[in-house]
Amino acid sequence: MRPFLLNVFFSKRFIHAKVMHRGTSKVISVATTNAKDLRTSLPSLTDNNACRVIGKLIAERSKEADVYAIAYEPRKDERIEGKLGIVIDTIKENGIIFV
């Protein structure tokens, strides 16, 4: 069973990502480009650099909560490429294992 699930949402203005426990729906870590510190420091809130920052933040915050393995289930007809691929690759590079 894969208890921790990654959820990534891309809007026209922001990127939201969270890791949650599947059984209890408890949110373990959250990162968004709509946060005050990222809104002012990033030049663009939806480009590839913002995806890398979100991936790094999710990995760091998940490690702080002692979560080292997460799963991602793509939606119907969704491919893991582009911005989503950048977020997932950055999370992998920062030490989180995908099950």
Q: How would you portray this structure in words?
A:
The chain has three helices and five strands. With 99 residues, the chain is α+β, with helices and mostly antiparallel strands. The protein has a single domain, classed as Nucleotidyltransferase, domain 5, CATH 3.30.420.80. The strands form two sheets. A three-stranded antiparallel beta sheet has the order 1-2-3, covered by helices on one side. Strands 4-5 form a two-stranded parallel ribbon. Strand 2 and strand 3 (27-32) form a beta hairpin. It starts with a strand and ends with a strand. The model has no long low-confidence stretch (mean pLDDT 94). Keywords: Ribonucleoprotein, Ribosomal protein. Belongs to the universal ribosomal protein uL18 family. GO terms for molecular function: 5S rRNA binding; structural constituent of ribosome.
